[in-house]
Amino acid sequence: MPRRKSSPEKKPDIYRVTTSDDIEVSTYLELAKELHGEQPVAEPKLPPGERETIVVLDFGSQYSMLIARRVRECQVYCELVPYDTPWDKIAPLNPRGFILSGGPASVYDPGAPLPLPYIYESHLPVMGICHGMLAMAHHLGGRVDRGAKHEYGHTILHLSDEESPLLEGLPSSMPVWMSHGDQITELPPGFRTLAYSENSPYAVVGNDAGIYGLQFHPEVVHTADGKTIFQNFVLKICGCKGNWTPANFISDSVDKIKDKVGDGRVVCALSGGVDSAVAAPLIDRAIGNKLTCIFINNGLLRRDEPERVLNTFKRNLKMDIVYVDATDRFLDRLKEVTDPEQKRLRVGNEFISIFEEEAAKLGKIDFLAQGTLYPDVIESTSPETKAAVKIKSHHNVGGLPARMNFTLIEPLRFLFKDEVRNVGLALGLPEDMIWRQPFPGPGLSIRIIGEVTRERLEILRAGDWILMNEIKNAKLYRQLWQSFAVLTDVRSVGVMGDYRTYGYLMAVRAITSEDAMTADWARLPHDLLARISDRIINEVPNVNRVVYDITSKPPATIEWE
Fold first, then answer.
1. List 180, 217, 394, 395, catalytic entry
2. Which pLDDT value is given to residue 229?
3. Which pLDDT score is estimated for 387?
4. Which of the listed residues 111, 214, 293, 511 has the most CB atoms within 10 Å of its CB?
5. Helix 246-261 / helix 274-287 crossing angle, nearest 10 deg
6. Does any domain span residue 10?
7. Which pLDDT belongs to residue 279?
8. Strand 266-270 with 291-297, pairing
9. Is 219 an annotated catalytic residue?
10. CB-side exposure of 36: number of CA atoms within 13 Å?
11. Residues 464 and 411 in one domain
């Protein structure tokens, strides 16, 4: 049953940093300064405009990007920064509150990442999640130990009788997603229990200074009421207005691009995907004819894709577009390469080489624009996510050469795919461009397991064409995040027309997702899978076996390589 709403009362002054026992938090700060030293802090100042930011401090969790996404869903801007980012980098963001992410470290290990003192000195609300909660408890005088039992997966959370604005409107018991081995065994002074689980007596804690800790992960979809928790923290406790919209993002981005480019000139990489299709008109709105778009056919696109992409761009984007057919160059670079990381790196390097050559023909070019997104950054690791473990390089992040003749412009670097689509709609782009399924920058090279050859590319193109045709005929294209074929390096024996065959195994992958950070395999109808398999085997030479990938992310990634 729903939990009783808090009765109207004077809310605690969250900017007065004291505990419920009126013990000054400055006592806690002395503990923090022993570890980190003095960190100069100034009162947050409102920059021009109405921008307000929730700062997410990253302690290395693979879910950190999901925290940012949940805040954005509240229409509040946020940025994910390394946990040890100094205050002088934070202050210009006009922070209204902090969220401390989870992470793999134990807080009692030597050199474990801990919050810097300004988190508390800023007098702003704080919410620590998993490691972030344990780090605060350890920092502020509590005790953290290895738990007698671990909690991984679904757990039932029970709210205590203590009223809290963070948990307002939630049911008295609800499923949440746990992933921890350590736990608080003694609360810091002034903190109290707000919720508990069977194995975590301090599953949610807080004090009157607006400092909260959650042992579970409200950012993942497995915590059904997680969105309410973020809304309570961001809108009610931090007092954010929720005014971060696509229109405001466009206005802010245009101003930033103008300032950065100045009198310079920009080339923009068009791939055919929604990311570059949104980045290009956004930059064009800022600098006009100082932008030239370059569409490179790397020979790794799907059947008829170069022609369709070019026609779509020319029809909808009224700007200069240079077309370059570099098929031979990319295939030469990929010759005898089987390692997926090498494929990504070589594709990324070759893209830059070609852009530099084409830019030289245009005169002096200062900037290269790309449609890099947040998930690309988190999986590749970067200065924004240095505490996280690298999953794989993306050709436009980890695959870029160390030295380039360009300065990068990446206006979508802090957006998720759904946010990019909303920006594209606000820019007036057609829906067939906006809703195109994601396609990897290295193209079909990472959907071919093993060496990339012209013959194997044609086999994969034929199978992928059939798959997409059937998915669209079944009217499932918009319901799927991605659907594609993979040509494996496995060959198997078959019988076709009474003859023995020894052909390739082709895999079909279809997934559902909200943001590509997590994904589930799509439960396609069996008759649809049967049609796809029958057509591929009958219409694609050298393929005699089709399998369906039923692996979620995690443990797998969306692409096979």
1. 217
2. 96
3. 47
4. 214
5. 60
6. no
7. 94
8. parallel
9. yes
10. 23
11. no
Number of domains comprising the chain: 3
- Out of 78, 130, 238, 240, the active site residue is 130
Residue 380's pLDDT is: 56
Q: Do 422 and 461 fall into the same domain?
A: no
Catalytic residue among 121, 219, 419, 561: 219
Percentage helix, strand, coil, to 5, in the chain?
Answer: 35, 25, 40
In this prediction, residue 148 carries a pLDDT of 62
Contact 521, 510 (CB under 8 A): yes
Please check whether residues 36 and 155 belong to one and the same domain.
yes
- CA distances, 276 to each of 71, 170, 399, 509 (Å): 24, 40, 17, 24
Domain of residue 134, residue span: 26-237
Last-in-domain residue among 369, 400, 429: 429
Whether 6 is covered by a domain: the verdict is: no
Q: What is the CATH number of the domain that holds 319?
A: 3.40.50.620
**Domain final residue pick, 207, 237, 267:** 237
Mapped onto helix, strand or coil, the DSSP state of residue 92 is: helix
Q: How many C-beta atoms surround the C-beta of residue 7 within 10 A?
A: 6
In a domain, 17, yes or no: no
Regarding whether 329 and 227 lie in a shared domain, the answer is: no
Query: Tokens for 228?
Result: 């309410």
Q: Element (H or E) spanning 310, and its range?
A: helix 305-316
E strand spans, 113-166: 126-129, 143-159
* Reported pTM: 0.67
Distances (CA, A) of 102 to 75, 121, 125, 543: 23, 22, 17, 45
Q: Can you name the residues that pair with 193 across neighbouring β-strands?
A: 205
Q: What is the CATH classification number for the domain harbouring 185?
A: 3.40.50.880
* pLDDT < 70 regions, the chain: 1-50, 147-152, 180, 375, 377-404, 498
Q: Is 130 a catalytic residue?
A: yes
**Cα–Cα dist 161/169, whole Å:** 14
Taking only the tens place, the pLDDT of each residue in 297-311 is: 999 999 998 998 888
